[in-house]
Amino acid sequence: MIVTLVPFMSKMMGKPQKVERKLKPCFNEMDIVGYNYAEQCYEPHHKRNPDRVMVASETYPPLLAKNWKYIEKSPHVIGDFMWTAWDYLGEAGVGAPVYGASRGGFNRPFPCVSAGCGAIDMTGHAETMARYASIIWNMYQKPYIAVRPVNHSGEKYFFGMWRGTDAVNSWSWTGMEGKRAEIEVYSLGKKVELFQDGTSLGKKELIDCRAFFETCYMPGELNAVSYDENGRKLDESILVSADETIDLTVRFETDTIKADNEDLMYASVEITDKNGIKKLLCDRRVHVEVEGAGVLAGIGSGNPFTTDSFTGEDYNTHFGRMIFIVRSNGKIGKIRIKVSADGMKERIFEKCALN
What we know:
Largest sheet: 5 strands, mixed
Mean pLDDT: 94
Radius of gyration: 23 Å
Order of helices and strands: HHHEHEHEEHEEEEEEEEEEEEEEEEE
Number of strands: 21
CATH superfamily of the largest domain: Immunoglobulins
Strand content: 35-45%
Oligomer: single chain
Strand order of the largest sheet: 14-21-20-16-18
C-alpha cells in the first residue's frame, strides 16, 4: 500500500546497491534469483555479478514493452512474469478501473471482489493486455484495435499500477453517438494507420508497439493497417459496430460431458446483434436453469464489482458477457438447459452426459 501511494519509496527501498549488500549471501545460494518489481536492479547487479541468472518474477503491466526489450538483449534475465495472467478473487481492485477520480489506494472496498488486473478475466476472456503481450512477444501479427469505454469519455480515471489499459476490442457503444472516443492500436511494425468508415484518421509511429487516436464515436467500421519501416503494408484488422437488433447468444465449448459427478461444461452468454457482434452497453440479468443429468455448478462475469452470487441461478452480464458452468451429477442421459434474460427470447439446449 505504501508503494502504491508513494511510488518513490519503491525506488528508495529497492536501490540496487542496498539490495545487493543486504541479500548477496542469499543470492549466491540460488540457481536463479527472482526479482519482484525490481527492474532497476537488473543492470547494476549484472555488472557486479555477471554469472547471476535472473528472472523477473513480478512486474507491472505498463512496463511490459520496456522490460521485454531489455530481456531480449540480456541473456542473464531469462524471462518476465507480468502480474498477472488470470484475474483472481482477493487483493480486491488493485487493477480495477475507477472513474471520476484521478487517484486511489491499493485496493477497493466491497462490492469489489476481484483484483481486476488480469490480462485474462475471471471467466477466461482475454483482455487487451493479453493481446498486447502476445504482440510484444511477436506471437500475434495483426493490429489489435481497442477502445477506451466511450460511456466514460471525458471522466477522470485511475487504474492503479497493475493495469495497463481499460480499452476493449469493440466499436459498439450504443447511445454514445457523438462522444469522444479514445482508440489504442497495438501492432508490430513501424507505423499504423487507422480508418473510420474509410476515412483515414492519420498514420502514426508505433512506440512500444502502440499508437493512440481520437475521434467521435459513430456506429460503423474501424480499420487498422500496419506498415514496416519501408512503408509496406504488413497486415490489417477491422472492427464493426453491432446493429440495432438484440439477441441472446449462447455458446458451449462441448455438447457432452462424462457422467462421473466431476466433468464440467462451460458456456458463454453474450448480448449481441443478429450477426453475433457483442453489444457492450446492453447488459442484462441472465437466468440459467439446468435439469436432468447435470447441475449448475457456477455462474459469473468478469466484473470486479458485483454483489451477485457465483453459486446462484442469476447473474448480470458485464460488457455484454458472462459464463456459466454445468457439472455432471453422475447420471447418464440428457441435460436440459434454459437460458433467459429480460425482454429476450429464451434459449433451450439439450446436451448429454455419457458413460
